[in-house]
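Per-record layout

source: Alysiella filiformis DSM 16848
name: Metabolite-proton symporter
length: 441
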Amino acid sequence: MSGTQNLRNNPYKVAIASMIGTAIEFYDYYIYAAAAVLVFNSQFFPKDDDGAAMLLSLSTLALAFFARPVGSALFGHFGDKIGRKKTLVASLLTMGLSTVAIGLLPNYEQIGLLAPILLCIFRFGQGLGLGGEWGGAALVATENAPEGKRAWFGTFPQLGAPIGLFTANGVFFIISSVIGHDALVAWGWRIPFVASLILVIVGLWMRMTLHESHVYKEAEQQGKTKDAPVKEVFKNHMKPILQGTFIMVATYVLFYLMTAFAQVYSRGKPVLSEYGHAMGLGIQPNTFTGFLLIGAVVFGIFTSVSGVYADKMGRRKFLIIVTSAIIVFGLCMPLFLQNGTPMSVLAFLIIGLALMGLTFGPMAALLPELFPTEVRYSGASLAYNLSSIVGASIATLVAMKLNQHYGIIGVGIYLAVNGVLTLIALISTHETKNVDLIAMK
């Protein structure tokens, strides 16, 4: 035991390093989401049909969600077999190189059909990287946390999401303000992708200075590590995988309704669908981006707050309350977006992203606590990323179709139904607040 004590990391250093690493990964991930809405429809797809080009552009977002479970299985295998530190370095490189490659990619006019094919390949690479990233970052933060503060320390890697969201949209906002929207679409969008290389170098330096998690080292010394952890987790831990998957569903649906659907709907032309429902509000792109920057700050604040209360109240009780609020928020969605104004859209984003922070923050503690050390990386990552397929991969496209046929109330019911699924999953679990991560079987 004493040997591993000497290798223990300073928990605050680990927390900051995990936050910076996930912020870089989410920045890379979100600049793609922003570009898919603002740019890629005109850069990488035929311009014959604007509506079809937008749907194709948005559909590439889903590729990463299907890649993420593959990444969680791949990096989870090595994270549980050879350690968290080496695997986190590999995941950051995978994401970073894929992002830079997108920034250097020729467009449809230059290389034709090869452009969207390569875009899809590199988007898949982004998904692989993030699939391996989250589990490792959550584990190094929570496995090194002081007693009784796991949920709060677990919010540090979770803060990477609002920081990445803010930075990604902030960069697009600044570039568009300086060079104009037309230049942004023509070439300016490449700047944040290529600049990611600098951030990756910083992230790698931060991660190389850390020691391996003492929880993992003790499991390794006790011979608890597995040769095939992914196989082990599917064979003996299917129940917590399913519980974790559906615990995250409402979180994912909420987030992509806030950041992708709300952006498409707000920026869309204020015309009626063939079913008589409004397809847009006609808000200027930079206005919505500014709103999203405000929402990202709210998201970050409430992510931090969530950890404090999840440690005091327990993860299960706290998240049951928050999920119930998400269900109510979904049913109230028409109050904000039906015939919405810029101020009602801003209010929608602030409330929605506050709830997002409250539900997202405790996940870095709760999901790893469902699994023993020898399969924790694989199990937590798989639950987190399988949920992205169920809750996020098609959320924007489903919401657009529901709005077209049934109006905003259809989108709100969609969020509420996913909230009910999360509520059922939470009720089926036990409280994990006082679980001993080392002794856990």
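summary: The chain has one domain: 2-428. Residues 175 and 188 are 7 Å apart (CA to CA).
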